User: What shape does this take?
Amino acid sequence: MSASSGQKLTFEGEELDYNTDRDIQYCIRGSDKKSSINSFSDPQLGLNGRLLHNISKAGLKKPTPVQRHGMPQLVAGLDVMCCSHTGSGKTAAYLLPIINSIVGDASASRSADKGSGSSSGKENTSGTNPTGLILTPTRELAMQISKDANMFGEGLPVSSFAVFGGQLLRYELGKLKEGRVDILVATPGRLLHLLSEFDVLTLGKIKYFVVDEADEMFDRGFFSGIRNIVDQFLIPKEERINALFSATFPNQIQYFAKKQLRSGFIFVVIGILGGASPDICQEILCASRAEKKMKLEKIVQDLEATEKKLLVFCNTIEKTVEIFNFLHQSDYKVSGIHSDLTQGERTQALKDFDSGQSTILIATSVAARGLNIRGIDLVLNYDLPKDINEYIQRIGRTGRVGVVGESISFFDEDTDEDLAKDLVDAITSGNQSVPTFLSEFCSGADDEEFESSEEALHFGMKKLKVKRCFEHFEEEDAF
Ligand SMILES: Nc1ncnc2c1ncn2[C@@H]1O[C@H](COP(=O)(O)OP(=O)(O)O)[C@@H](O)[C@H]1O
Ligand SMILES: [Mg+2]
Assistant: This one.
């Protein structure tokens, strides 16, 4: 594989991206599974003409693997658990079937109204009674999904709105009272608050229920909130279509899937289960605490001439502020995002980075998940996280669909030793070579699970690992 930032991936001399059909390995489980599609205009999907136009306008030429294999299941009304690496297009995989279904229902009800002589289309109730509910862990992601839904739904009778902590409650209540929201995107805490304290929202008509970034939801302790929403406010799961989307697939998610999805749900896995995206070059540099700033400066200087975008992760707010100040003093175009900032400041920081006003974004993990900031060329782990899933999510901010990204991580021997073995696994699963100093940390460790990177195909799924996962999946008391 040859790969450099910003270029298309090549494999054995041929350009490779998700718009081609080759080499992507996948696994679909479930006795009712539907066959996969190769184009958004496949009749099996039956997507509305205007929706197809919007998809093409958004630059989506061909479906990515998770869209090819996942969408037909949802369109057919089946529940799904979809696992696919970050940046693989999971959002559209669930939004398009939901939007299409809402548009179809709207036009069916218009025809019925015409037949019956009724004049109004939508029910004229006070408050919101949405058809689609999407739960997501962060406010930034909620805004993004809702924005995507409105973009795909442009010119169609479908509207999306996001509710999340940090947004003005009064604004949300006003919007919900108007009752014109078809797809509600929400963080669990704010949704529970709205449902329990106010009378502007009911979930009695939910036809599609999606939990996005399920692994992150679990890590943030949101599962009990989700359970409350499901148990107290949603119609029974048998009466709706349910989907879980996740980049990784730990045991807790498998358990959650069993509980929240209808039995017989379809399980779609793309690529290496829980592995790092193969579209990312992962580099690990040995750097002590004292050396980190110097090395950062060197990286920033190298990038400056190229106008490339850099996302830097620190583990604490204090460190984020310190690094922000350090670069700001040297007149770099830098912005910062962490949870001590107001929602307005965070949105502005993201906007600046998105528009190129700033080319460096310093962030705590709050920005790690789900954020779809366009065109990040390099992710730098100034501090490595303690957990490997967090690492995979962080580096997943680069290397978006079909375009190679790059990550550099500062490995501090004093603090990061515990992560060494998992890092080797992540690098190996992304088909990259492991630096010698890192292998030394893990010498003697059992690596029988991992095939050598020469042997493994690009995008090659480690069959052994997936098989193991399925075994777990079927163990009733594995949790
Ligand atoms: N079929 C496609 N072709 C090209 N780009 C796509 C396609 N589907 C999604 N994208 C783009 O890929 C990026 C990542 O998508 P996203 O849904 O955020 O990934 P995930 O949720 O899997 O991390 C977005 O910028 C999105 O617009
Ligand atoms: Mg996502």
Q: What stands out?
A: The pocket of adenosine-5'-diphosphate (ligand 1) is lined by residues 60-64, 67, 84, 86-92, 372, 400-401 (CB under 6 Å). Residues 34 and 73 are 6 Å apart (CA to CA).
